[in-house]
Amino acid sequence: EHPLQEPPPYMEYQGISFPASNVKKETLEAMKTFEIRDDDVVIVSHPKSGTNWMYEVVYKILSGKKEKSTPIGLELWPPEKQPNYIQLRETPSPRLMYTHLQHQMAPPGLTAPVNKVKAIVVLRNPKDVCVSFYYFSQKHKYLKNPESWEQHSKDFLDGKMPFSGDYFDHVLGWWQMRNDPHFLFVKYEDMKKDFRSSVKTVAAFLEKELTDEHLNLILNSCSLESMRKTLEESGKISVRKGMVGDWKNHFSAEESARFDQKYRERMAGTGLEFDFE
Ligand code: A3P
């Protein structure tokens, strides 16, 4: 926790706030002309939906190796480094990257109907995303430390999350791509329920044949426990509880009802549904 420190500066772009230390207007502007290649693989997600988990799976499907990936976020400009989009411009194919950008802010090449890129959208139910974001914001100094759980869950529902803005806008924006054959949608809850078949689905989408040995390597090295171990060793902290339904330990009945109402309003008729337990 960092309660006595100045809140970190945020930068507003197209109605969404970004932590100024990690995202700059210049990088977001650059997205308009960032060239997506036919052989790129892009993981798209609302923050805290299982991005790193999917990244690790995809990295290992593509590499066949046990070594850990170093996830690269398209729109990020890590302090004291060059912007990631510049590094990516110079990275030889095939490239793997992730983005938390909303659909309309992403490089046009990603969503153009003529594209050949492979995009994997990871989706997770909003209540668990909200809880995961709460702890994440407490741990990272470039994010504002939530005043309280009550305030955080209200801000989440009001669409005030850094990087992603409004959860429903974010998810439904990308959901528009659901009939595009270059897009695969994978739910966190389905990965939890049957990891083996999720990995097979992702591999098939990437047109990679997996031997049993390769599949087992992925299942073992991307399990919650192995990822916790490797990430802790490297000083990263994106692995927390890694379960479906932790929201029940945080939401009051009233907060839950408010979420349910907004969920019903925004998801009605979209064909998108989530498991909450
Ligand atoms: P919790 O905070 O609910 O535990 P992201 O990578 O998009 O930031 O998502 C982080 C969430 O994914 C965290 O959720 C984290 O624990 C979970 N996660 C990371 N690796 C996982 C794994 N191997 N299995 C299940 N969940 C995992």
From TrEMBL:
Q: Which InterPro entries match?
A: P-loop_NTPase, Sulfotransferase_dom
Q: Which UniProt keywords apply?
A: Transferase
Does Ubl conjugation appear among the keywords?
no
One MF annotation (Gene Ontology) recorded for this entry: sulfotransferase activity
Q: Where is the Sulfotransferase domain?
A: 38-271
Instruction: State its Enzyme Commission number(s).
Output: 2.8.2.-
Instruction: Respond yes or no to whether keyword Transferase is given for this record.
Output: yes
Its EC top class is: transferase
Enumerate the Pfam families for this protein.
Sulfotransfer_1
Q: Which family does it belong to?
A: Belongs to the sulfotransferase 1 family.
The protein's name is: Sulfotransferase
Q: Name the source organism.
A: Branchiostoma floridae
> Where is the organism placed in the taxonomic lineage, from the top?
Eukaryota, Metazoa, Chordata, Cephalochordata, Leptocardii
